[in-house]
């Protein structure tokens, strides 16, 4: 009981620090622009840590250790592909998004494909991110409940209320500073846990002796699974609201690139460390439920160290939830609530709408997560849905004259229906739904482009017009 109280006090102290940060930066959220972008340009390293923390949730941390418990070091690909995705994003898109000057993914796509695509993109993105939020609350609450010795429902409520409150108070600036703290604590925590776990397992040499040889293969989970992770992960990075929103806070396109490279430098080693934890747990605690690989090692740590690691896991949940909450509320207000309820453009009303949307978006997943049975698998589906939008993003920047506006709108709905349908059918023929999410919009845009080029009385519209000067510069 004494150990439990020490861990609880560590987590409480961590939450107090988050509250203090939000209180200190509350003045930066007085306008709608400062609430959504922080009110100033942030250094590249801070945005890099922010972006990394958004992708290291409990599903990534605990899930990677879970896969490593069964399959070995190749589980690191689950997070490492995100690092590769950020390298590609830095090379291809970061500077282009920053030059475009849009803080929402829907606004960027609307520049090229029209207002109908703006609305469709917002609906798809909000649904995908809310799905991730429900999964994060449910899985994170279950893990914290076991570590803190409290019920699952109180754990979920703790996470949901805490994350919503500090976003509500401080807006984007509080999310930047607190998520940087989350990333640092998570990195140090997973490093400590990996070092302790290897020591308790008898060192790297004993791991080689105790575990099957395939546990040390880079393709142990299978190349098809690795490529599916790659498609879904890279696609999610290329077309996620909170990534675009974070990039908009960097000073210039060059530092937007640097920020995403910092993210890659954090994510790749994090994936390896989480895998080492899972492999060590397979030696130390054979026969347990694989999802308990990371938590089982945490409870064996000295109380203060365990408190630090548990605070890192709580930070993993807070970071993901905060980014999702801010991203969804920004989309809802900019694309739906402001046009319908604030046509005069009153900024104070926009701030009120942003805070109201933040409260709703932050707490609604809590209600769903409490009753959720098995939502972790749906997280991958949410990534796949965003991968479909990534096709339009790449065409927007590299082939802006390809396809039509109607084709872009059709591709969003076609990808939504096809991807979810393929997922519900159980991924027939061994083809992952991530591949379907990418193939459908590519095929749809190609058909509309060819049909428009042929012209004639049946052609629905002309091909996409040439980009404007601003768009061409981006």
Helix and strand layout, with pairings?
Elements: H1 2-24, H2 32-37, H3 44-55, H4 58-71, H5 77-92, H6 94-100, H7 105-113, H8 115-148, H9 152-200, H10 203-210, H11 223-238, H12 241-247, H13 253-284, H14 293-298, H15 303-341, H16 347-371, H17 376-398, H18 405-424, H19 433-454, H20 469-473
GO cellular component, one term: plasma membrane
Organism: Pseudonocardia autotrophica (Amycolata autotrophica)
Main location: membrane
Tell me what the structure shows:
Helix 18 (405-424) runs antiparallel to helix 19. It is globular and about 70 Å long. It has helices at 2-24, 32-37, 44-55, 58-71, 77-92, 94-100, 105-113, 115-148, 152-200, 203-210, 223-238, 241-247, 253-284, 293-298, 303-341, 347-371, 376-398, 405-424, 433-454, 469-473. It has 20 helices and no strands. The chain is an all-alpha fold. It has one domain: Sodium/glucose cotransporter (Up-down Bundle). The model is unreliable at 456-460 (pLDDT under 50). The chain crosses the membrane at residues 6-25, 45-69, 75-94, 120-138, 144-169, 181-202, 222-244, 256-284, 304-332, 352-370, 376-397, 409-428, 434-452. GO terms for molecular function: transmembrane transporter activity. It is a multi-pass membrane protein. One of its GO terms (cellular component) is plasma membrane. Belongs to the sodium:solute symporter (SSF) (TC 2.A.21) family.
Question: Can you give the helix content as a percent range?
Answer: over 70%
Annotated CATH topology: Sodium/glucose cotransporter
Task: Pick out the low-confidence regions.
Answer: 456-460
Topology, number of strands: 0
Succession of helices and strands: HHHHHHHHHHHHHHHHHHHH
Overall, the morphology is: globular
CATH architecture: Up-down Bundle
């Amino acid at each position: 009981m004494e150990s439990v109280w020490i861990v609880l006090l560590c987590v409480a102290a961590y939450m107090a620090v988050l509250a203090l940060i939000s209180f200190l930066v509350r003045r930066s959220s007085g306008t709608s622009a400062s609430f959504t972008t922080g009110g100033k340009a942030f250094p590249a390293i801070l945005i890099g840590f922010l972006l990394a923390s958004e992708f290291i949730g409990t599903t990534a941390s605990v899930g990677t250790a879970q896969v490593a418990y069964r399959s070995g070091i190749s589980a690191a690909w689950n997070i490492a592909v995100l690092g590769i995705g950020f390298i590609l994003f830095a090379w291809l898109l970061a500077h282009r998004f920053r030059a475009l000057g849009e803080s929402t993914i829907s606004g960027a796509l609307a520049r090229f494909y029209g207002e109908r695509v703006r609305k469709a993109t917002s609906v798809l993105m909000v649904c995908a991110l809310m799905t991730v939020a429900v999964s994060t609350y449910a899985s994170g609450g279950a893990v914290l409940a076991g570590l803190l010795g409290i019920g699952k429902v109180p754990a979920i409520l703790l996470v949901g209320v805490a994350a919503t409150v500090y976003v509500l108070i401080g807006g984007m600036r509080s999310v930047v500073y607190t998520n940087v703290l989350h990333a640092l604590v998570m990195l140090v925590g997973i490093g400590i846990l990996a070092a302790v776990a290897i020591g308790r397992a008898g060192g790297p040499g004993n791991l080689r002796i105790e575990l099957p040889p395939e546990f040390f293969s880079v393709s142990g989970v299978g190349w098809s699974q690795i490529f599916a992770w790659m498609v879904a992960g890279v696609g999610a990075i290329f077309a996620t609201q909170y990534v675009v929103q974070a990039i908009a806070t960097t000073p210039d396109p060059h530092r937007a690139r640097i920020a995403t490279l910092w993210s890659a430098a954090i994510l790749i080693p994090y994936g390896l460390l989480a895998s080492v934890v899972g492999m060590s747990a397979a030696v130390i605690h054979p026969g347990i439920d694989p999802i308990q690989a990371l938590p089982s090692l945490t409870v064996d740590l000295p109380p203060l160290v365990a408190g630090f690691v548990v605070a890192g896991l709580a930070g993993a949940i807070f970071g993901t939830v905060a980014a999702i909450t801010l991203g969804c509320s920004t989309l809802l207000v900019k694309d739906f609530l402001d046009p319908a309820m604030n046509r005069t453009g009153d900024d104070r009303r926009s701030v009120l709408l942003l805070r109201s949307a933040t409260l709703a978006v932050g707490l609604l997943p809590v209600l769903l997560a409490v009753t959720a049975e098995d939502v972790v698998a749906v997280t991958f589906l949410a990534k796949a849905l965003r991968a479909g939008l990534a096709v339009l993003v790449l065409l927007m920047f590299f082939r802006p004259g390809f396809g039509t506006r109607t084709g872009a709108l059709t591709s969003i709905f076609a990808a939504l229906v096809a991807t979810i349908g393929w997922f519900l059918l159980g991924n027939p023929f061994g083809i992952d739904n991530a591949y379907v999410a990418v193939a459908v919009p590519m095929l749809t845009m190609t058909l509309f482009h060819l049909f428009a080029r042929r012209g004639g009385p049946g052609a629905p519209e002309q091909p996409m017009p040439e980009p404007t000067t601003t768009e061409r510069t981006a």
